[in-house]
Known about the structure:
The chain is α+β, with helices and mostly antiparallel strands. Helices cover 22% and strands 27% of the residues. The chain has helices at residues 17-71, 98-108, 321-328, and strands at 113-116, 132-138, 156-159, 176-179, 198-208, 213-220, 227-235, 237-246, 256-258, 269-279, 292-295, 298-301, 311-319. Strands 1, 2, 3, 4, 5, 6 and 7 form a seven-stranded antiparallel sheet that branches. Strands 9-8-10-13 form a four-stranded antiparallel sheet. It has a two-stranded antiparallel sheet with strand order 11-12. The relative contact order is 0.15. The model has no long low-confidence stretch (mean pLDDT 89).
Amino acid sequence: xxxxxxxxxxxxxxxxxxxxxxxxxxxxxxxxxxxxxxxxxxxxxxxxxxxxxxxxxxxxxxxxxxxxxxxxxxxxxxxxxxxxxxxxxxxxxxxxxxxxxxxxxxxxxxxxxxxxxxxxxxxxxxxxxxxxxxxxxxxxxxxxxxxxxxxxxxxxxxxxxxxxxxxxxxxxxxxxxxxxxxxxxxxxxxxxxxxxxxxxxxxxxxxxxxxxxxxxxxxxxxxxxxxxxxxxxxxxxxxxxxxxxxxxxxxxxxxxxxxxxxxxxxxxxxxxxxxxxxxxxxxxxxxxxxxxxxxxxxxxxxxxxxxxxxxxxxxxxxxxxxxxxxxxxx
Length: 330
């Protein structure tokens, strides 16, 4: 009797067609989910970056304007300057006659801050509906001090501190001179010997151009002739508006708030509130902004071409301390 067993044929294990198709379907679903998560994360990251750049632009723009507003009306050792009965040009100091241009600048010192909704003239070209602001001051450092820059052909200010009672023709303390020729600035300190400090005169105008850029135009004579050189400071600023606080009784305190100061009231501006609408430079998918904004009593409607761009209103209140401080101490 043959007890040997017939060897079994081993069957090879594997996946059926149905199992393979189910696995493929599950893989596709997982892959789609991962892809969707990746795409969403990428969009979110891009949106955060756009918003971050917008916040940086808004903060930087406010900081620029605040810096000049805070120091507007600084004249070195000189006191507050008298305001004329009429407003000076928005861009003073452009005359070919340098003596006349210096007088024009000195007259403008009575109005450290000046602005309005529209503008006649050609020194700047602001966007329609957006306001501008002109600010005048002396540099916060005197020529020759560390980090202040070298002497140049720009307009400079010098204030007399010498008092010579025996000479009736001598200038009195507080008298000032503006010139592009530094050798013409001959005032002295209290000892009547040491040269008085010389400060560069700064006349700047901030405005929004038609390309939605914050522009700073600054008086310069770098080319040998007086001009307001324009520099683009921030992109994506759609409009700029202002509200002003007036010190009407010369005590250094704000008595009236208005967004439309009259001619002589500009000399009493002791505070300004700045409003900016700043948008993302890139559109956001699926986003539409059809709102209207009210800034300092003025309405701003989002342009159709930029409704897919997110935007934000930035505001800051700035004390014009050289105007308020001098009056408060009187």
